[in-house]
Specification:
Protein name: indole-3-glycerol-phosphate synthase
CATH topology: TIM Barrel
Distance between the termini: 52 Å
Low-confidence stretches: 261-266
Catalytic activity: 1-(2-carboxyphenylamino)-1-deoxy-D-ribulose 5-phosphate + H(+) = (1S,2R)-1-C-(indol-3-yl)glycerol 3-phosphate + CO2 + H2O
Bound molecules: ligand LARABZUK
CATH class: Alpha Beta
Number of domains: 1
Radius of gyration: 17 Å
Strand content: 15-25%
Pfam families: IGPS (PF00218)
Domain Indole-3-glycerol phosphate synthase: 6-252
Number of helices: 13
CATH architecture: Alpha-Beta Barrel
InterPro entries: Aldolase_TIM, Indole-3-glycerol_P_synth, Indole-3-glycerol_P_synth_dom, RibuloseP-bd_barrel
Number of strands: 10
Largest sheet: 8 strands, parallel, barrel
Length: 266
């Protein structure tokens, strides 16, 4: 079985080395403004939150969307109720820093810089690009790095979404004071997704944290199941970028609680 994550991390080391060569950390820091924790301001525990992802390509499935640019996707998500956007900057997803900056110019919503953080340089770089939050993947970091990078992100005024894939990752995440925990539904061996993964891991989670289910959420029914199980939000890429009507799908995934409100009012 191909170790896609391992390959991505290996290439990332070279990408970070090249980025450091082109722009040393001191220069990145000089170009950076402190962030204002915009993710924490928007995301509230027990409310429903949609992080809509600008994802043109998946390493597992290839090209997902040929009809929209990252900016077009961002504009549709922002106009249709997403709480926050996730923008890939890794080339395996056809992401790049330039696209991230274009989206930053375009929308007011908090932005997650979606990348594979393996070096604290990337945290400063994320803030320089205007990110409000970074992804910290427990599987590719030691427990010490996870804590250190979380505190560094906070020191820069950014939030961090700590991503877990199994009980071991969850235990590591819970040794940190992470406010946001993302449970990824992607099996890292087969790269298939199932929201069952979130349902199985939720009992191991700390219910005081903001819990976000990531990957493989394909329709409003999936989102409703996750909401009823106790999730506070979802992160969705493929389910949105492959939808026939991306705006309508964004609305449907963002508005999961509306049905309950209507039921309560009836
Ligand atoms: O998406 C992939 O194929 C993938 C392969 C290897 C490592 C990570 C991968 N995805 C990263 C992501 O975080 C997803 O883009 C995100 O959770 C959204 O998933 P989905 O809604 O299933 O597109």
């Amino acid at each position: 079985m191909k170790d896609i994550l391992g390959e991505i991390v290996e290439k990332k080391k070279a990408i970070v080395a090249e980025a450091k060569r082109k722009m040393p950390l001191a220069e990145v820091k000089a170009r950076m403004q402190p962030g204002t924790f915009r993710m924490s301001k928007v995301f509230k525990k027990d409310a429903w939150n949609l992080i809509a992802e600008c994802k043109l390509q998946s390493p597992a499935k290839g090209r997902l969307n040929q009809t929209h640019t990252v900016e077009q996707l961002a504009a549709i998500y922002a106009a249709n109720g997403a709480s926050m956007l996730s923008v890939h900057t890794d080339p395996h997803f056809l992401g790049c820093n330039e696209d991230f900056c274009k989206v930053r110019e375009l929308v007011e919503l908090p932005l997650l810089r979606k990348d594979f953080v393996i070096d604290d340089y990337q945290l400063y770089e994320a803030r320089m690009l205007g990110a409000d939050a970074v992804l910290l993947i427990a599987r590719i970091l030691s427990p010490e790095q996870l804590k250190e990078y979380l505190y560094t992100a906070w020191s820069l005024g950014m939030d961090a979404l700590v991503e877990v894939h199994d009980e071991v990752d969850m235990a590591a995440a819970l040794t940190t004071p992470a406010e946001f925990i993302g449970i990824n539904n992607r099996n890292l061996k087969t790269f298939t997704t199932s929201i069952e993964q979130t349902l199985q891991l939720l009992p191991y989670a700390d219910k005081e944290r903001v819990l976000i289910s990531e990957s493989g959420v394909l329709c409003a029914d999936d989102a409703r199941v996750l909401r009823e199980a106790g999730c506070d939000g979802i992160l969705v890429g493929e389910g949105l970028v492959r939808a026939g009507d991306i705006g309508a799908m964004t609305n449907a995934l963002a508005d999961i609680d509306a049905g309950n409100d209507r039921k309560m009012m009836a």
